[in-house]
Design goal:
The structure holds two protein chains of two kinds. By secondary structure, chain A is an alpha+beta fold. Chain A contains 19 helices and 22 strands. Chain B has three domains: 115 residues, SH3 type barrels (Roll); 129 residues, 2-Layer Sandwich (Nucleotidyltransferase, domain 5), CATH 3.30.420; 114 residues, 60s Ribosomal Protein L30, Chain: A. The longest helix of chain B is centred in the middle third of the chain and has 21 residues. Classes of the chains: A alpha+beta, B alpha+beta.
């Protein structure tokens, strides 16, 4: 059977070719009323103009594009101010910024206008938002997804190509990012994204906070302030955790709730640190962090009883370790923390290592990829400097982290960046944060936002604290986007290159590996689909076949139910369309997790987009 | 629902007159009426009359019509049912056989006549007309940036509001964006609470969330109630109950209804019982897969061996416009009851009913294990 062969070899190219995505019509899947359509679907003429104005004035080309257009749009390049069209429906206004922004560089005079039209946009957004709040999801999949997808041969998809090629070698695309990246690889330390995981109160934040302090990333003054303030709250033991736990709620309760991010450097590496929450209620946030990570530090509490409760089934030591493994992390440092509470007992250390070893091996880690380090986040022992006169002769925590091998980056693949955060920056535009999964981007470039299917231009790129002209796969960035309405952006939206957009779908076929669940999975089983930074309700629609965990061979077709620790091919329907990729095309964007009632039910790989 | 009259003969045909009084009654009506029934009620009809001079005038007249129902549409939000069909009784304004649409609303009397009132329909009628009904509860299910306000009554779960706002994450050195957005989010949710909850009707208001969102929101709500002097909140303070849920999505309602603290308050409601029944099916499927069947064919097969201990079936199946099919379902229900099994008819509006609906709509826990069907004949296991 075709299905079964595919699974085994994980070669899905034949399942999908480009003709397939372009040739699809989404109209039937997302029905829209004529009223909605007229409100949100822009006439082609308009879209064409919006895009063509991205190009440098190229007399022949622009004119021929401009002529057939409607009044509002053709007015754009020539009449910067638009007071002559107050009667224009707001959706035209909304598309305005995208018409004009890119001209900014060439025509400084227009800057003022841009601001005006932008404030228009914003007001439009707010009112729109308010009226929307109660009745419908404000983030509902925008119907404007449709034009581009449903009319494959028309402008929206081909146009960007034109734009880019016409810009190439001209003003914006000055940088040959790939060769710059080669230079950077030679002159700078490689970056690695590291997530810190473990059971609640294992001491993750304290450990990493203390490490940051020892590495000089936190000033003495700040540290002193944390010390006194935490004392006042009666949470003196959390002083180092405060470096990463910054919200009032987190500090008051002494619990990390969302991912905290920081940068630091070791001898050979630049580390982007993601400190995950350990509490089981915040696992969705932890997944967001883990999805962006290359490697992980698993923190366990060595205290008698505490290690045990975190390691029991139901404890997060197990769940987290399996989650990050399912999300693609293979290298692990296990920090056996709070060694001060067991007076640095070697027996305790060995006991814990033995237990973890067999568990992690079962969980799919290779023994050679795991380092075990005893340490104390509170006292700071064995964090940056190695222990003297101790039975432990191995590397310190920082040294172990330094030994992580950065994974290869798919820089040659099309640009993909999954949005993990959206916020208003200081200047114009909207800031989005995320990790670049593949390809590269540079400032001034036009990118496509999916599933909204809107073009936007990248104004600035921040990597860490500094502005940089470009960024490549593996980098954590904050991009300032201009010419796009905030309603078009959502967590989980993907920024991608307009030439090679990601697919949008709400129905996927996937291979799932089922965790240690109590009750079996049947068709109709409700789950929450965790993908990058989104979590959406979903339903397991069909159980196609149960397959062997190791070989992928079909054991049984159409099983009645799936029980723990089995593997299967299923169809999953997500409650709204997401931008997804096949596992075979992009590993990181082809993975997802399924959870139900607070438990991780399964990990999955997308093998077909339906 | 008020029963105004009931006249059935021995063969089970006849008519009843009813007045729906509450939202939930409309749901019962929706489930009672099937295609082919005759429905009589007052309605408005536009009548065009031609005068002797040839000019035509049209006016709207109020009249009582009886139609043979051909299609039924239910609007949960407007609380209205729209019946379409042909006129079957002489009327001065409407010809026999002419199409008409009757919009049935709350407190509108109607009478319904069926060729055959089967056991399922009669049970439904009894439930609908039972005056001792359990009180409604409101459930506010939240997570950061997402909230749904549901009203749970005995037979329905209705989402009254869904609020989704994007909350920026905490960022190094600044949490103001996050904190402000969260405050605004709570503000919106509070507005929804005030607008959609009828505090005089609901028995309690469950606030459920993972983490501390629920505590934070309740704190916010009480603070605002004092600050803005919102009497209704202050008076009903004791009706709020905090419950843990694993997410802010609607499916968490299942966990909430199963929570022991809530179960005490709900005592014996249909919604909670359905959650329990479906759970026991899954437990059986795990422990003794040969005693848990689903899909019409398998369940019917089990019934032939008198093996069914408990039948779980969604009311959606009985709304089938295919009369013969409905009769098969009814026959199954009757037969299970006759052999001493129990029958749970799930409301497709409740979360567990929704899930059962996706699991072919029909499942059974057996008294003793039966062999599984052989795999080849499995092709239609997921029809329906
Ligand atoms: N004795 C001792 N206590 C520690 C050590 N590390 C952390 N703690 C204490 O453990 C408690 C929890 O520390 P956190 O850093 O907040 O733990 P966490 O793993 O980040 O917790 P969550 O993020 O909420 O899951 C605090 O009271 C710390 O002071 C250690 O090495 N020794
Ligand atoms: Mg922490």
């Amino acid at each position: 059977m075709a299905r079964h062969r595919n699974v085994r070899r994980l070669d899905f190219d034949e399942e999908r070719d480009f003709g397939d995505i372009y040739g699809r019509s989404f109209e039937d899947e997302v029905a829209i009323s004529p009223a909605t359509a007229s409100q949100f679907m822009y006439p082609h003429g308009n879209t064409g103009i919006a895009l063509s104005s991205y190009m440098k004035p190229h007399p022949l080309e622009t004119q021929s594009e401009k002529l057939p257009s409607s009044a509002g749009a053709s007015g754009a390049p020539t009449q910067p101010n638009q007071p002559s069209q107050p009667a224009l429906p707001s959706q035209y206004l909304r598309s305005e910024p995208s018409i004009k922004k890119p001209d900014k560089a060439t025509a400084p005079v227009e800057t003022v206008t841009i601001k005006q039209s932008q404030s228009n946009t914003k007001m439009g957004f707010i009112t729109h938002h308010r009226s929307n709040i109660d009745s419908s999801p404000a983030r509902s999949p925008s119907p404007s997804v449709l034009p581009g997808r449903s009319t494959p041969t028309t402008t929206p998809i081909r146009q960007p190509q034109l734009t880019r090629s016409s810009l190439k070698g001209k003003q914006l695309h000055l940088i040959d990012v790939l060769s710059e990246y080669k230079k950077r690889q030679e002159s700078e330390k490689p970056t690695i994204n590291l997530v810190v995981i473990g059971h609640v109160d294992a001491g993750k934040s304290t450990l990493m906070g203390h490490l940051l302090f020892l590495l000089g990333h936190v000033s003495k003054r700040t540290m002193h302030k944390y010390e006194t303030d935490s004392q006042k709250l009666g949470k003196a033991s959390f002083l180092y955790a405060w470096i990463l736990d910054e919200t009032g709620e987190e500090r008051n309760r002494g619990i990390t709730m969302d991912i905290a991010q920081q940068q630091f450097e070791t001898e050979h590496l630049k580390i982007h640190l993601l400190d995950a929450p350990g509490h089981r209620d915040f696992i969705p946030n932890m997944i967001t962090g883990a999805a962006q990570a290359d490697v992980a530090v698993l923190v366990v509490d060595a205290t008698i009883g505490s290690f045990e409760s975190g390691f029991e089934s139901g404890g997060q030591t197990r769940e987290h370790a399996l989650l990050v493994r399912s999300l693609g992390v293979t290298q692990l440092v296990v920090a056996i923390n709070k060694m001060d509470t067991v007076s640095w007992s070697r027996e305790r250390f060995d006991e814990i290592v033995t237990k973890l070893k067999s568990f992690l091996k079962q969980g799919g880690y290779k023994e050679g990829d795991i380092t075990y380090v005893p340490c104390s986040g509170m006292t700071g022992d064995n964090l940056t400097s190695t222990l003297t006169d101790s039975w432990y002769k191995g590397p310190s925590l920082a040294q172990s982290i330094d030994r992580f091998r950065p994974p290869p980056r798919p820089v040659e693949k099309p640009f993909r960046c999954c949005i993990a955060d959206i916020f208003k920056g200081q200047g114009a535009g909207i800031c989005v944060a995320g990790k670049i999964e593949s390809g590269y981007v540079q400032s001034g470039e036009t990118v496509l936002v999916v599933p909204a299917n809107e073009l936007t231009s990248v104004k600035t790129i921040f990597g860490g604290d500094d502005i940089s002209a470009w960024a490549v796969a593996g980098d954590q960035v904050v991009l300032t986007l201009i010419g796009i309405d905030q309603t078009k952006l959502a967590l989980g939206s993907v920024l991608c290159s307009p030439e090679a957009p990601v697919s949008i779908t709400s129905l996927v076929r996937a291979r799932i590996i089922i965790f240690n669940i109590e009750l079996p999975i049947t068709a109709g089983y409700p789950v929450i689909f965790h993908y990058q930074s989104v979590s959406e309700p979903a339903v397991i629609k069909k159980l196609l076949s149960q397959v062997s965990k190791t070989s992928g061979d079909v054991i049984r077709k159409k099983p009645r139910c799936l029980t723990k620790n089995s593997s299967a091919i299923v169809e999953i329907e997500i409650s709204r369309p997401l931008s997804l990729e096949l596992y075979s095309d992009c590993k990181d964007l082809g993975r997802f997790m399924l959870r139900y009632a607070g438990n991780t039910v399964a990990a999955g790989l997308i093998i077909k987009i339906l | 629902m008020r029963l105004e009259g009931r006249c059935l003969d021995k063969s089970g045909s006849g008519n009843v007159s009813l007045i729906p009084e509450e939202d939930e009654d409309m749901w019962h009506v929706y489930n009672l009426v099937t295609v082919g029934d005759k429905l009589k009620s007052t309605t408005i009809r536009k009548v065009t009359s031609e005068s002797s001079t040839g000019s035509s005038t049209s006016e709207r007249v109020r009249t009582t019509l009886t139609i043979s129902v051909e299609s039924i549409e239910y609007d949960t939000i407007a609380c209205q049912i729209r019946f379409k069909g042909r006129n079957v009784q002489e009327n001065p304004f409407v010809k026999m056989g002419a199409y008409h649409t009757i919009d049935l609303q709350l407190n509108q009397k109607f009478s319904l006549s069926k060729e055959k009132w089967d056991s399922v329909a009669l049970d439904r009628l009894d439930v609908a007309c039972d005056p001792s009904r359990t009180a409604d509860i409101a459930a506010l299910i939240m997570q950061e940036g997402l909230a749904q306000l549901c009203i749970v009554t005995s037979a329905m779960t209705i989402t009254r509001a869904r609020i989704e706002q994007q909350i920026p994450r905490k960022r190094r050195g600044s949490c103001t964006n996050h904190d402000k957005a969260l405050e605004r989010f709570y503000g919106t949710v509070l507005q929804a609470v005030l607008r959609h909850i009828r505090f005089d009707v609901v028995k309690c208001i469950l606030i459920a969330s993972p983490g501390f969102v629920k505590d934070q929101f309740l704190e916010y709500l009480l603070a605002e109630a004092i600050k803005q002097d919102i009497k209704v909140l202050l008076e009903n303070k004791s009706k709020f109950l905090l419950v843990h849920s694993s997410s802010g999505h609607k499916q968490s309602l299942k966990e909430i209804l199963a929570d022991p603290a809530v179960a005490v308050k709900l005592a014996d409601t249909k919604a909670a019982n359905e959650v329990k029944a479906l759970d026991s099916f899954y437990v059986m499927l795990q422990n003794e897969p040969n005693r848990a069947f689903y899909g019409f064919k398998d369940v019917e097969r089990a019934n032939e061996s008198n093996a069914i201990e408990m039948l779980l079936i969604t009311d959606e199946l009985f709304r089938s416009s295919d009369v013969a099919l409905r009769q098969r379902y009814v026959a199954l229900v009757d037969s299970v009851k006759d052999t001493g099994g129990s029958v749970r008819i799930f409301s497709s509006l409740h979360v567990s009913g929704e899930q059962l609906g996706l699991l072919t709509g029909i499942a059974a826990i057996l008294r003793f294990p039966l062999p599984e069907r052989n795999e080849d004949s499995s092709d239609d296991s997921d029809s329906n």
